[in-house]
Amino acid sequence: MKNTPKRKQRNKPGVVLFTAVAVMLMLSILLTATVSFVSVNRTKTNDNYKSKQAYLTASSTLESFINQIQTDTYPTNDPTAKAKQKQVMDNLKKLASANSGKGTTTTVSYNGGDGKSDNIGTTKITVAQEGTSVANIVVTCETTYLGKTEKVAAHISTPPVTKPAEYTNTIELVGNGGAGYDNLNVIGDMAGINNTTGKIYRFTNNTSIYGSYLMYGSLEVSTQPLIMLKPSLVDEKQGSTVTISENLDVSNEFHINSTMARADGYNYVNIGQKLSTSNHMDVGSSGFDVDLFCCEANIGGNDYTQYGNFYVYKGAGAYNGDATFGAAGQTINGSLYVEGDLNVTKSLKVTGSVYVTGTITGKDKIVCQASNIHEGAVLSKAGRDAKPQIPVSADAYVYYPEDFFMSNDTNVTTISDQYQAFYDGSNTKTFNTFASDWTNVDYTLTEPIDLTGTGAKTQVKSRYKLRITSSCTWAKDLSFNDYGNGSRILVDVSDSSGDIVIRLQNGLNLGAEWSPVIVVRNRSTIIDTTTGDRKYNCYFVSDSGSAITLNGIDSVTGKSQHSGSSACNYSFKGLKVFDYDTYVRMFDSSVLNNTKGNPGLPQSGFVLNPTSVDVAGSYRPKNSSIIFLFGENTTLNATDQSFFQGSFYSPQAIVNIATSGLGGLVVTDSAGGKMTVQCCAVGVVIANSFGNANTAFYVYTKPSTTSVMQNAKGGKDDSAFGYTLDRYDHY
C-alpha cells in the first residue's frame, strides 16, 4: 500500500492526438531545418543527396510522431492522466479506422529559401489499420524532396496491457464488514480496501503496525495500540502514512510514531472525517514529525502531544473544519491550522503558529506568542499544508481463485489444467501415492548452498519423511503412525514437475498430534530476467469443485463473475510451511537431520530481512513461490503454533490464523535494527475477513511475480493505454 498523493506526476497529461499530428508535422520541419538551407543550392544537389534528405525528413518526422505517442501514454497511476492516455489512444484508432481502415493522411509542403512554395518537397503522414483490426496500426511517412521520394513506416500494436498486480500489504482485508484485532502485530503495511461506508475496525491490546495503514471506514482504538511509520518494505526510499476514510476515535492511549524524519509525501495521518480523543494520544516525536489532517477535531480527556503540524480543514457534508481542544494536557510542537472555528477550553501549547479562518474562543488559553496567533487567516493549502487525497478506491481485484481454477485463458492462469485434472479423473494422486513409492520415503537431500552470502557454498543435508514431486491431493489417507508427530514433507518443484498444485481435500482436519512440517523446494531453472523469480510455483488450493461457472467480466465493476464454487472448511493445528532456502538457513543440522518433530526455535544468528535492501548478517528471502488459493466460502482455521511462509490470495474466504506461531524469530529493518518476534506468517494475507489471536507477528514478503497472483488485479481501469512498437520499416 502506497498512498502518496503528493508525489510528482511522471508525465504531463496527454495531448489530443489530432493536435499532436499537426504539432509533430511542425516539429518535423524544425528537425529537418537543413531543407531550407539546401533549397537555396538545390540545383547543385545530386540524386543521392536528395534521397538522403528525403529519408532523413521522413524518418525524423516518424520518430517524432512515435515519441509523442510514447510521451502521452507514459505509465501513470494518476486517474486524470489515465483518462488522457485513453483519449490519445482512442483518437489514434479513429485516425487509423477512417476510410474503412485505409486511415487518414495529412500532407505538409516545404517552402524554399524565398519563402514561397516552389515544390521543394512534401511529407505525407498516414495513420492506417494494418490488417482488419484497429488494434494494429501502421504509421507511414512518405517524403518527396526535389523529385526523390523515400518512405518509412512504424508498426505498432495498441491492445491494452493489463497492469501486473502489486502486493504491498502484509494483511489486506477485502470484505465489506468491520473487524476487531487483539494483539495483532504487522511488519509491513496493512489495509482494508473495500470502500463501504460505516465499517468500524477496532484495535485493542497492544496491536501494532510497523508500516503504513490504509482503511475505508472508522477506527476505534483502545489499550495502547501503536502505529510505527517505517520506510516502505516495497521501496525503501518511500515513507509511510496512515489514512482513515471516516472517523478516528481514541478512548485509551494511542501512539503514532515514526523512524523517519518528515518529508513531502509521507509521515502524516489523514482522517477523512472526525478525530475524537478521550485519553492519551501522541503523534510523532522530537526530530520525527508526523503531520495530522482531519475535517473536525474534538480533543479531550487526558494528554494530547504532537510533533508536527495539526490541520483541520473543511470536509464533505457537516464537517466545517471546526476544532475543540479540551484535554488536560495538550501540546502541538508545530503549527495549528483550523479552517472553521477554534474553541480552546484548557491550556493549549503551540510552539509554532496558529492560523484560524473563523473565530477563536478561549484565545487566552493558547500558550503561543501573540504575534503568531492569526484569526481570520487565509490558508494556502499548498506544499506541506496541502491535505492529502484519500483515494476513491484501492486497486480492485479482477480475477479470483475460481478464474485461476477454471479459466482457459492462458493470460489469466497457468494452473487450470492441473486443477481440473483432480475432477476429470486424470489425476488421482494423493500424498499416500508418494508414500507408496519407496524412492520418496525417508528422503535425504544434500546440495551445496551459499549460507553466508559470500559465494562460498556448503554441503547441506536435510531429511524428510516424504517427498512430493507432482500435483496431487492432500487427502485424509496418510497413516498417522507413519506421518504424524511433525513429519517433514518435501514438495520438490522442478522443470519436470512444472507448477505443483496441491488440492486440500475438503474437511481436512489435522490435530496437534499430526503437526506436519511442509518444506517447498523450488529448483526450476527458467528464471524471469527482470525479477529473478523462477517460472514454476507451488500452489495449495481449496477443493472448490468442478461446477464453477465463469460468467465473464461485469461491465460496471470490471470484475470477473463466477458461481458454483463449493464451500470448504480446513482446520490445522501445528502446521508449519517453509520455503526450503529459508528452512535450511533458519535451523541447524540437528533439526535438518530429523524427519519428524517440532523444529523448535530458529538457530542463534539467523536474522530474517523482509526489506527491499540487503542488510549485513541477515537473510532476505526471494519473492515467495508458495501460494495459497482459497475460493469463495472457504474457511481456514490454523492454531497451536502454526506458521506459514507463503502468500494467501483468498478475497472471498475467511482466514483465521489464531496461533502464537514460530517463536524466537529475529527480524531486521533496513537500518539493521533487530526485533525478536513470535511469527505467524511471512508473506501477504489477502482475505475477505481475517482473524487472529495471541501476541504474534505477520511479516511482509512479496509473492512471486511469475505466479498467477500477478494477474489478479488490473482490468479496464488499470490497463496501460500505451502501445508496443513492433518494428520500423524503410521501403
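the 2nd protein, sequnce then structure:
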Amino acid sequence: MREFLLGLRLLFGSGRGNRVRFLLMTLGGSLGVCCLALVLTIPAILDAHDGRAAAREPELLRGNRSGQPTLVLERSDAHGSKMFGRVFLATGTTDTPKPPPGLSRLPEPGEVYVSPALHDQLRREPGLKGLLPGKEKGLIGPAGLTDPNELYAYIGTTRDHIGAEGRALKSFGSPYPPTTAVEPSTLDILRFTLATLVLLPLGVFLSVCAKLSAASRNRRLAALRLLGVSAKGTQRVNAAETVVAALLGALLGLGEFALLNRIMSSTGLPGLKWYPGDGALSGNTIAICLLGCPALAWFVGRMSARAAATDPLSTRRSAAPRAPRVWTILVLVAGLGLVIGYSSTGLTAHPAQSQGIHAVLVVAGALLTGLGLVLTLPLLSYALAKRLARSGNLALNLAMRRNEVEPGSAMRVVTGLVLLVFSASLAQGVLVELSQVSRNTAPAQQYSLSLDRLTQEQQRRLRGIPGVEASAVVMDDVNADSDIASALIATCAEVAKMVQESKGCVDGKAMRLVNVDGAPVSASETSYVVRKDGKRTTFRVPGPKDTVLYVSSTVTGLGGDILIPPSALPTGATPMGAYLVLSSSSDSSTVRSVLDRIGAIAPTSEVDLQGVNVEALQQITVIETLLFLGMVMGLVIGVAAFLVSVTDRAVERRAQVTALALIGARPRTLRAVQCLQVVLPLTIGLVLALVCGKLAESAYLVTGGGAVFWDGAGVPPLLAATVGVLAIAIVGTLPLVGRRIDPELIRRD
C-alpha cells in the first residue's frame, strides 16, 4: 500500500507533464472502453430482438381438440423494403390463452391493436387501413415488438371470417424465434469481423495508453530503485498510475457508452433500431470493462517497468538500446503462410472450403497476420532506421538515429493506423461475400402488381419510379387451351428496354415474341377480357404471323408471349386479370429503394417478387450497418491512438527538440525530422498492411465458396484510404515542434 500511495503522490506532484500524460491515459482509456462496451452490447441487442420475436410466436394445439378454441391466422407481407406482420385472432369459448406480450387482453372482433410505427404509417398512408379491418383500439407495447420501427398488428375477428386457414391457438411463446435478426452463420462471421475491426486495434490502443511517456517514467522508476525501493515495490509504484488511469477511464467510458446508447437508440441506425433497455450495460460487460482494462494496464505497466526495476542503470541515456528480437517476425510469417496457402487454392480446380478445421485456420491466419503486423513494426522500423541513418541528409540522419534508439516508439504511433487499413480490407471481403450470397443472380429484378387494384395515376407514378428501367402490362388469355399463355402490352421502344437485343419489331402490329433459345409459339387466335364503360367484354387478337426475336429477357413474363401494341386495345378499355410488371437492376440498394417507393404509391397492393427475400434484405441492411459501425469505431480508435501517441511524443521530446534548436537547427529541419520519424515507418507498415490485408481477404473469399475470389474493385478505395492515412500522419506531426524555446527543459531533464 505504501508503494501505491507513493505512486499517487508522484503522479500528482511531479509536474504538469505527468498530469497531462495521466489525462491522456484516462481519456484514451475511456474511449477504448466505450468502443469495447459497444462491441460487447451488439449481441445483446440482437438477442433481445430475437427473444421478443420468440415470446410472441403463436403455439398451436396439437392432436384432437374439443369445444371452440381461439383461432389464429398469421400474415406477413412486404411493405416497401420492410415486413408488415398481421395476426388475426378469433376468440373461442374454451381454453382462452393469455394475451401476447405487449397487450393487456385479446382483441375482440372489430378491434385492432397496432405498433407505434404502424400507427404513424397509417397517418401517412390511409390506404393501409384496408388491410386492417376494424377500429384501432390501442398500441402494442415494447414487449410485443422486435424493435420500435416494426410494422405489426393484432386484429380481432370472428371464426367465420378467419376461414379454414385458422389454426387452434394454445398460447403465445416459443423457445426459438421464427426468424432471427441475423442468421447464426452470418453472426459468426460478423463477430470475427468486429473482433478484427475493433478488438485487435482496441487492445493495441489500450496498450499505447498504458505506455505513454515510457522513457521518462522508466528514469523515474530507476531513480526509486537506486534509492532502495525493491523491484516489486518499484513495479507497484508504476502500477498505481497505470491502474488508476485505466480504472478512471473505464468508469468514464461506461458513462460515455450509457449516454451514447440513449442517443443512438432514439435515432437508430439504417435497418437497426432498438429500445434503450436492449443496449443497457450488463453485469458481464461492466465486469469485463472494470476488471479487464485495469488488468491489461497493470500487465503492460509491469512489463514496461521490468527493465527499470531489475536493471536501473540501463535507463541511462548512454546505455545501448537492445535491438528488437527477430523472432517476432515468426508470428507474421505463420499468419501469411496460412492466408497465402488458402488463397493459392483459388487458382486450382478445387478451392478450399471453410468447413471443419479450415474455418478455424482461416480465422487464425487473419488474426495471426494482424498480430504479426503489430509485432513486426518495431523490427522493420529498426532495420529501416539503421540503413537510412548513414545518409548524408541531416534531417533524415537525425530522424533515423532517433528511431534506431527507440524502435518501439514507431509501434505506439503508427500501429493503430496500420491495423485500420488491414481491417478495412477484411471488412471489404465480408461485404463482397455477403453481397454474393444475398444478391439476386439475375441481371434484373422483377416486381409484379395486379392492375385490378391500381388506378391510372398509380400506374403512371409506378412507371416513373427512379431506378425502374422497364415496365409493361402482361395479361392472360381467357382460353386455357391456347398455346399462348399471355400477352405483353408494350411498344417496340419498351421491348428494347426489357431485352438485351431484339430484331423485327414493328410498332402498331401484333407480333409473336420468340426467344432465340426457345421454341416458336403457334399463331392461333387469342382472347382477353377487358373492362370498358364498367362492363366486361372480350378482346380478340388474330393469330400474328410476324415475329420479334429477342435475347435474354430481363422481365420474366416476356418469354413465350404475344406482343400487342397499346393502340390495339379498345379506347378506354382496361385489361382485367392483368398485372403491371416493373424491372430494375438487382442491386440490393436499388431493390430496397424501388420497394419503398412502391409501398408509398400503392400501399395496399401485393407485390410479387421473384428472386428476392425482403427479410433477407432487412438482414443485409443490419449486417452492413454493423460492419459500417465497426469500421467507424476502428477509424476512431486508430486515429485516437495516433493523436494520443503524437501528443505524448510532443511532451516527451521537448528537451531533445530544445537541445537541437539551441545548437542551431532550424524549425523547418526539426519539423522534417519529426515528420520522417513517423511517416517512413508508417509508409512501410501501410504497404505491408495493404498486401497482407488483400491476402487475408482473398483467403476468406476463396474459402467462402462465392464466385469472387480476387476483389480487384476494392483496391482503389484502400489505396485512397492509405493516402488519407499518410496525410493525417503528416498533419499530425507538424505541431510536435513548438515556437518557444525553453532551456530550462534541458536543465530540469
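The first strand starts at residue 58 and ends at 60. The chain is about 55% helix and 15% strand.
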